[in-house]
Write a structure and sequence with these properties.
By secondary structure, the chain is mainly β. Helix content is 6%, strand content 56%. The strands form 2 sheets. Strands 1-4-5-6-7-9-10-14-15-16-17-20-21-23 form a 14-stranded antiparallel barrel. The longest helix has 7 residues.
């Protein structure tokens, strides 16, 4: 599964990387948190109500959540080419621009929140979305230019989606007054909403695209270099540094029109009576309204059967600090927002710096990142042979602090380092101890 840049497959240390299974979950927000507790302790508690707090300092709050399951897959690297194929499933949930006035009602409810009742509140451009789908991803990379010690690589991934479920709402503007626990007055509410009442797997899920480029400055000339081939002496030329740029998750997941329910709503001067007992799935839900104007129309979203992916652009820099064993990586991820008249998810922004120790059988990485460029996270990733386990929020697991989210991921992979024709050659070259001084120059295995 090529995640951040499809061009990264070329000139890999591994000839064939076979993924058996992987999974992960990441959640973060800037409003609700668990106070002064670790995730390990939190999972051991049957009730967490006493630890839940709300950050009232935030003006507009947001939520970002993703889960994935990486099924069977593999990446293959030989010569100037890299090829990947994987089967995955993904789920996203997102909330943008939660208005400040909603927070007291979320925190305390309506019955016990008298000071916030009978006040007119306004907000606009609130977006909610949830999306679940499966995919088949095919990736290809090619070293299209090699000059001296410089290598230029391009790559792309094509994704075939199988839609499962979705729900989304764009609230363009709202003017509301919460009278009490029985009645809400909606002076204005303009919104579009869609959902899948009966989630099902559909092959008409659409297509997605990733595009990436990588520049590598190698430690030796690469003009006649063909990675993982006997023609190049079965050697690997390490890079001194590399720079990558990518655009990921271009596209949308499609749903059949008969599998979704969609409508645009325009409400003016509506009195919502006994709202706490209203059932969303009731066919007579609108009967609880006393209104001068309720309009259900075609909506402003021009393609309500599509939910846009959390598209992002990324810039990566990786530096070989010492002997092709110690590296430092820096990366920026910038989520690309979708138009207000489209259903879709926004990818969270991040800035990260990650030192790592890397060998054939052991990797240790310590990523430090800034969620939305301002909220710090310290992670830890460990690989022992085929098993990798990691988190971007390691301190949340082991130390008592205010927890705004959680993260964990796991992979089981089988790496095959050499082309079968190179196996005997590499065994002969690898006899004896590793010469770390020599490893800083080409070739390194």
């Amino acid at each position: 599964m090529v995640v951040l840049n499809p061009s990264s497959m070329a000139n890999s240390k591994t000839y064939l990387d076979i993924n058996i299974v992987g999974f992960g979950s990441y959640t973060n927000n800037n409003y609700v948190y668990l106070q002064d507790i670790s995730l390990i302790k939190a999972f051991g508690k049957s009730e967490l109500d006493k630890e839940i707090r709300y950050d009232v300092r935030r003006i507009d709050s947001r939520l970002y959540n993703r889960e994935f399951v990486a099924g069977p897959g593999a990446t293959w690297n030989k010569g100037d080419h890299g090829i990947g194929l994987s089967f995955n499933a993904r789920s996203y949930n997102g909330l943008q621009n939660l208005p400040a006035f909603a927070k007291p009602f979320i925190e305390d409810g309506v019955k016990f929140n008298t000071p916030h009742q009978d006040i007119n509140y306004t907000a606009n451009n609130l977006k909610l979305a949830s999306l679940t789908f499966a995919e088949i991803q095919a990736s290809y990379s090619y070293a299209f230019l090699k000059k001296g010690k410089q290598m230029f690589i391009g790559g792309a991934s094509i994704k075939k989606f199988y839609s499962i479920a979705a729900g989304a709402a764009n609230i363009y503007d709202i003017d509301v007054n919460v009278r009490d626990s029985f009645q809400i007055s909606l002076q204005t509410l303009n919104m579009d909403a869609m959902y899948t009442p009966n989630p099902k797997l559909s092959s008409k899920g659409g297509l997605g695209l990733d595009i990436g480029f990588t520049y590598q400055s190698l430690l030796a000339s690469c003009e006649s270099y063909k990675p993982n081939t006997k023609k190049s002496g079965c050697r690997y030329i390490p890079y001194k540094y590399k720079i990558g740029f990518s655009i990921v998750d271009i596209g949308a997941v499609k749903f059949k029109e008969e599998n979704i329910k969609f409508a645009g709503y325009e409400l003016k001067n509506v009195e919502w009576m006994n709202y706490s007992n209203t059932k969303i799935d009731s066919t007579n839900a609108l009967n609880v309204f006393e209104s001068s104007e309720i309009t259900i129309n075609e909506g402003k979203v021009n393609k309500p059967t599509k939910v846009k992916l959390p598209t992002f652009i990324s810039l990566q820099f990786d530096y070989n600090v010492w002997a092709s064993f110690i590296y430092v990586n820096a990366s920026i991820i910038q989520g690309i927002p979708h138009g207000i008249n489209k259903f879709g998810l926004r990818h969270a922004n991040s800035l990260s710096i990650c030192p790592r120790f890397e060998t054939k059988w052991i990797d240790i990485a310590i990523p430090f990142s800034l969620y939305e460029y301002k909220d710090p996270q310290l992670g830890l990733s460990l690989r022992f042979g085929p098993i990798t386990i990691g988190t971007d929020k390691f301190l949340n697991w082991v130390t008592n602090q205010d927890i705004y989210g959680a993260d964990i991921y796991f992979y089981a992979k089988v790496p095959i380092f050499y082309h079968p024709k190179c196996k005997a050659t590499m065994k002969h070259k690898n006899k004896g101890k590793i010469n770390f001084k020599k490893a800083s120059n080409c070739p390194i295995l």
